[in-house]
Design goal:
2 domains; Helicase, Ruva Protein, domain 3; two-stranded antiparallel sheet; 42% helix; alpha/beta; five-stranded mixed beta sheet; Dna Topoisomerase Vi A Subunit, Chain: A, domain 2; binds zinc ion
């Protein structure tokens, strides 16, 4: 029998991506074993992050400031807007160091099965943003999955009415591949070889 505090901890840990009940139990025991070195600093870091981090209203990135450091940076290329599915993808492109424009995080992909339409994603906000700012080129950097590509084609169509050129990542992104797992070189090549949609 385990106490309700431990039970609650395990149940919460089991909700983390990649963890099931069994690995959650292992993590809980590990945390308790390294209480001072790990568990207490981790709980403080979680608390601080939960208080300090906010979603950027312009692009959907996470930062301690809104607009985020990328949106607030006037030295980036004003006419370039890169569309990504998630914040993790935005960070992957930033790590590659090969992109100097701005971003727009959709927050997922279109999925008829899961009832996710344009309204559930940041698509209306994107169309408005493109219309109200002088975007010259929109780079669709969605994952090379079926959902990612379906969303890309939907966006390419929806963006036809704007003056901006619409391009997409090309070679280097394997089918079924997710941007966050690519090495920086592959991502840089895919960005360099983008094609018009
Ligand atoms: Zn931002």
């Amino acid at each position: 029998m385990i106490g309700s505090e431990l039970q609650a901890l395990i149940q919460l840990l089991a909700k983390l991506p990649g963890l099931g009940p069994r690995s959650a139990r292992r993590v809980a025991l590990h945390l308790l074993k390294y209480r001072t070195e790990l568990m207490i600093p981790l709980s403080e870091a979680l608390h601080t992050a939960a208080q300090a981090l906010k979603i950027c209203h312009t692009c959907g990135n996470l930062d301690t400031q809104d607009p985020c450091a990328i949106c607030a940076n006037n030295n980036r290329e004003l006419g370039l807007l890169c569309i990504v599915e998630s914040i993790a993808d935005l960070w992957a492109l930033e790590r590659s160091g090969s992109y100097k424009g701005y971003y727009h995080v959709l927050g997922g992909t279109l999925s008829a099965l899961e009832g996710i339409g344009p309204e559930q994603l940041k698509i209306p906000a994107l169309l408005q943003r493109v219309q109200s700012t002088g975007v010259r080129e929109i780079i669709l950097a969605l994952n090379a999955t079926v959902e990612g590509q379906t969303t890309s084609y939907y966006l390419a169509d929806a963006l036809k009415t704007t003056k901006a050129k619409v391009t997409a990542l090309a070679h280097g992104v394997p089918l079924g591949g997710e941007l966050d797992y690519l090495d920086d070189g592959t991502l840089t090549a895919a960005l360099g070889a983008r094609r018009q949609l």
